[in-house]
Amino acid sequence: MGSFFRKWWRLLAAVFLLSVAIQFFVRPPAALSRADAAHAAGSFLFRPVYATVDFVRHGISSLWSHYIALAGVSRENDRLRREVAALREKLQENRDSLLENRRLKELLQFSEAAGKKTIGARVVGHDISPWFQSIFIDAGVEAGVEPGMAVVTPAGGIGRVHKTYSGLAEVLLVTDGRFTADVIVERSRVRAISEGMGGNLCRLKYVSPTQDVVAGDRILFSGFDGSMPKGILLGTVVSADRPREGLFQKVQVQCAVNLQAAEEVLVVLSRPSIPFRAGRL
Questions:
Q1: What are 162-165's contacts with CB under 8 Å, separation 24+?
Q2: Which residues of the chain have pLDDT under 50?
Q3: What's the confidence (pLDDT) of residue 110?
Q4: Residue of 253, 269, 151, 268 whose CA lies nearest to 193
Q5: Cα angle, residue 209 at apex, residues 206 and 211 outer, rounded to 5°
Q6: Which residues contact 139 (CB under 8 A, 6 or more apart)?
Q7: How far is Cα 34 from Cα 61, in angstroms, rounded to an integer?
Q8: Which pLDDT value is given to residue 212?
Q9: Kind of pairing, strands 118-126 and 180-185?
Q10: From CA 14, how far away is CA 17, in angstroms rounded?
């Protein structure tokens, strides 16, 4: 211990004297309070020390205040983000409800204008098979739905009921290869048979090269086979090729309804006007 003081006594003495001097000039004794000249000289000499200490103190205080403020802002931002996410979700729900109400209103107006007894249904499933095109609706036997009944929307035809169950029915889409129906070209009144070809397309069969069918023609169900209501839109011709060899044109039709996006449909509650055999559509 003695060796420590012998080694560092000069530094310790300097620190002690400096501390006494600072205390003396900052808080002078009452007896020396009138020694303004000496006090002023000391203040001038130690002004850099005061400024440095004050700068460090203010810097630390400012840093701490900013840290507390930033922490508060971060918490507030998190709360606002949660509120914005909740509001966006609610807005999306309101938009979905608005669109659904609009679709249901269109279905109701179409049902009233059709002059046929119908029942509304929701699409509850799709056939995942790559070979078949069908959907499932939440109206079945107890609702009076039977195989062969037409399924439509205000935009156009969807298909025909294929099988019925309790609370459920399978609908064969117009794009399924097993679906056929008698159709007519709206402009030229040319008749043909529509057959599904997958995707959102159908083909027109038995159109001779001399018959007037061109791209852009609207194709309607004729109602002559009794399976689909007369005048319901099937779609629009996208191509009509007259081959050099062959008896018939190759006509493709784009369906008016996006069948994979349909959500609500109408089932026409009337049996086909011609004998219908389930299993052969």
A1: 162/134, 162/278, 162/281, 163/278, 164/140, 165/140, 165/141
A2: 31-34, 279-281
A3: 65
A4: 253
A5: 80
A6: 119, 120, 121, 145, 167, 168, 169, 267
A7: 35
A8: 94
A9: unpaired
A10: 5
- Output the pLDDT for position 279: 47
106 CB contacts (<8 Å, ≥6 apart)?
A: 154
The Cα angle at residue 232 between residues 206 and 234, in degrees rounded to 5: 50
pLDDT for 31:
47
What span, in angstroms and rounded, lies between the C-alpha atoms of 43 and 72?
41
The 3-class SS string of the chain reads CHHHHHHHHHHHHHHHHHHHHHHHHHCCCHHHCCCHHHHHHHHHHCHHHHHHHHHHHHHHHHHHHHHHHHHHHHHHHHHHHHHHHHHHHHHHHHHHHHHHHHHHHHHHHHHHHHCCCEEEEEEEEECCCCCCCEEEECCCHHHCCCCCCEEEECCEEEEEEEEEECCEEEEEECCCCCCEEEEEECCCCCEEEEEECCCCEEEEECCCCCCCCCCCCEEEECCCCCCCCCCCEEEEEEEEECCCCCCCCEEEEEECCCHHHCCEEEEECCCCCCCCCCCCC
The pLDDT value recorded for residue 162 is: 94
